Amino acid sequence: MKRIQIGFDDTDSKDGMCTTYVGAVVVDRIIEMGAKIVDYPRLIRLNPNWILKTRGNCAIAIEVEAEDDLIDRIKKMVIRTVEELAELDHETTNPGVVFLEGENIPKELKLFSRKVIQDIVSIDEAEELAKKIGAEYHKFKIGRGIIGALAAIGERLEQDFTYELIAYRVPSNRGKERRIDRESVFKMDEMTYPNTFDNIDPSTGEIRITPHTPCPILYGIRAENPSIAKMAHKMVKALEPIERWIIYKTNQATDEHIIYAKISEVKPYRSFAIKGEVCEKPRIIAGGHVIFKIKDDSGVIDCAAYEPTRKFREIVKGLTIGDVVRVYGGVKPKPNLPLTVNLEKIEVVKLSQILKKLNPICPLCKRRMKSAGKEKGFICKNCKQKLPKESVIIEEAPRSIKLGIYEVPPRARRHLAKPLARLPPKTW
Asked: What pLDDT band is residue 426 in, cutting at 50, 70 and 90?
């Protein structure tokens, strides 16, 4: 028996297909050939900020155990399946397939995977690594997909991971409105949350398990373990036939894309977690977006809660100068604008005091006194009692927000962003 690691990426386009569907077909064909799938196939989300990313920016890895004489047949089948299903007519679709024989994953490949998830990697870098570790690779057109294919093989999900059960539509229904019983999704969420998550958006009542693209996916259920995913799947009532379904082990909802950094270390096309002090009060700009600035000992940077984050913006608007926060989000350059962190989450670490001045209470009438004029102290309009200006009362104003972590709603959440439902309880 031999082990072979299979990876592929970049088979989809904005008009259709999905790399996870190609993975589901490959898995079924491998099983039909008499080989064994080791563990669950892996769905690995890559850097969500890269300008050349595919639609969902995911790559697939499958670890297979097979008789020696099956290995070459499996390789040919994988290449044939990618040729058959990939959107090769689209200019931006450039699939890549990688095979790596054996069980051991080189350290260089694991480091490469982390870089692809958090940073930027070229096709040349991927080819150089493939040659160094003895991986066989196949490029379709310019073959950009070999980057994700290698990364998927190298990402072993040794720390945090989740699962996703994906159900696919029959070909005749693709591109049409998806038909699912809404009430069954709400019931499923009620019965399985937080062991499943991001099924619905509570702020809008929107179902989040169905995509809005012409891809083959009918729905995807994100879960903490496979048994919960299967249970949830049985509870969802599909009003159209399901061609096939599969469970992937994945880095979704893990924050693996986040780099902890100082402001001076921030670069475009990456995602960061930055701790800093609010140094400019939030302001609302055209479109309803909320912008504020934070600083640390290395610099200043803008942070933004954009309109699609809805009520999350109210949290951001409650910040003031002196508050200490940790912001999480991606950074993409925009013409004529400074680098800005597009917020996915915000942790309020420390709240500054907001002091307000109040006129004193009349010691005789117990009524609030009025100003007697500039620098003239206070006077009671009822009994004419006077008090000096030093009698002013200084109180701490209540804050509209509290310490804690706040997140954007599911409708605005990226695949890799870890929702609060997955964070351990914490006392603030």
From this structure: very low
pLDDT digits over 18-27, tens only? 999 999 999 9
pTM (2 decimals)? 0.91
What's the half-sphere exposure (Cβ side, CA atoms, 13 Å) at 57? 18
Mean pLDDT, to the nearest integer, of 302-321? 95
Give the Cα separation of 60 and 250 in Å (integer). 9
Give the pLDDT confidence of 29-80 residue by residue, as tens digits: 999 999 999 999 999 999 999 988 777 799 999 999 999 999 999 999 999 9
427 pLDDT exceeds 90? no
Amino acid at 351: L
At residue 428, does pLDDT exceed 60?
A: no
Mutual orientation of helices 182-192 and 226-235 as an angle, nearest 10°? Answer: 150
Determine the Cα–Cα distance for residues 82 and 10; give it in Å rounded to an integer: 10
Closest-CA residue to 313 (of 424, 372, 251, 401): 401
254-265 pLDDT, tens per residue? 999 999 999 999
Of 314, 292, 296, 322, which is closest to residue 304 (Cα–Cα)? 292
- State the chain's mean pLDDT as an integer: 95
Query: SS3 for the chain, per residue?
Result: CEEEEEEEECCCECCECCHHHHHHHHHHHHHHCCCEECCCCEEEECCCCCCCCCCCCEEEEEEEEECHHHHHHHHHHHHHHHHHHCCCCCCCCCCEEEEEECCCCCHHHHHHHHHHHHCCCCHHHHHHHHHHHCCEEEECCCCCHHHHHHHHHHCCCCCCCEEEEEEEECHHHCCCCCCECHHHHHHHHHHHCCCEECCEECCCCEECCCCCCCCCEEEEEEECCHHHHHHHHHHCCECCCEEEEEEEEECCCCCCCEEECCHHHCCCCEEEEEEEEEEEEEEECCCCCEEEEEEECCEEEEEEECHHHCCHHHHHHCCCCCCEEEEEEEECCCCCCCCEEEEEEEEEEECCCCEEEECCECCCCCCECEECCCCCCEECCCCCCEECHHHCEEEECCCCCCCEEEECCHHHCCCCCCCHHHCCCCCC
User: Is residue 235 packed enough to be buried (19+ CB in 10 Å), middle (13-18) or exposed (0-12)?
Assistant: middle
Query: Which range, of 159-168, 269-278, 367-376, averages the lowest pLDDT?
Result: 367-376
Query: Which pLDDT belongs to residue 425?
Result: 56
